[in-house]
Amino acid sequence: MKSAKELNWCILYKKDPKEKWNLPFGFANEMEKQELRLKRIEIKKSQDLKLPNKDFIIKNKINIILIFYSGFNIVLNESLKKFKREFPEVMIINELGDEPQTEKCNYVRAALSDISLTPDFESYQYWKNKGFNCYWFTHWADESIFLNKNYSKRNILIGSTMGLRKYALMLKILFLNNFKNQQKSGKENTSFYNSTLIAFQYARWGEITRRIFEASSCGCCVITNKLEKSKNIEKIFKHNESIIFYKNRFDLILEIFKLIFNKNKRKRIAYNAEFIVRNFHTAKVRVQELIKIVEDNLYV
Prior knowledge:
By secondary structure, this protein is an alpha/beta fold. Helices cover 38% and strands 18% of the residues.
């Protein structure tokens, strides 16, 4: 029996040529680092997102196809249906994107997958209850991009990259230039987080956000709105130990002032969170987990 590393993989994802990095690109880089036999298919436009043709599959002896996409895509869905009929022996893995907000878009992909991966625990339970082979595959920080480069002075007291969401205006009024809210992309986030002491986050869908992991990996003390227990975030980060959760606007203000006036607490939370992410929630760890998932499913 062959191991996952002896099989031939193909990864399919969308990437703007102007981007130097995006999440699936970084994941593919890590797959190559771990010496998986990998062929990449980078697509520029969503309407062109189709599975490879017969010649590509036969020529490269593809055994596994991993698809990264977030949102509804009828072209991709129709391509999956056709591919599944023509190549039932090829394992299809779908990373389902930004669930729970995209959950309504993913029925066909989840149903046709041999394995599907979701960052949201409730979505994982939803797909499992449908009888689909889904795994909870929560967010991570790409350690080649998001790392702590600044152990000295940081000049942004409270930083966020979320844009105009809830509480942003309030924080700007209260903290003036001590609150910076700048939407960034890719590697720009690393520089921003490395200048930030407290990373503010608001999860509008009540979801675990990727920014928590990325900011933590860069050495920030993260504060985010408290999520339902069903999201399982407290299995990763604990309040007052590796993250700060706030319940409402008044609680948010109180918790921020506690962090401002308690430097040791702020440093301890940032230090613990960075350790957690760098050891358990990196691209390297997720690729290792995916290899194990595949091997558990190969010969069942």
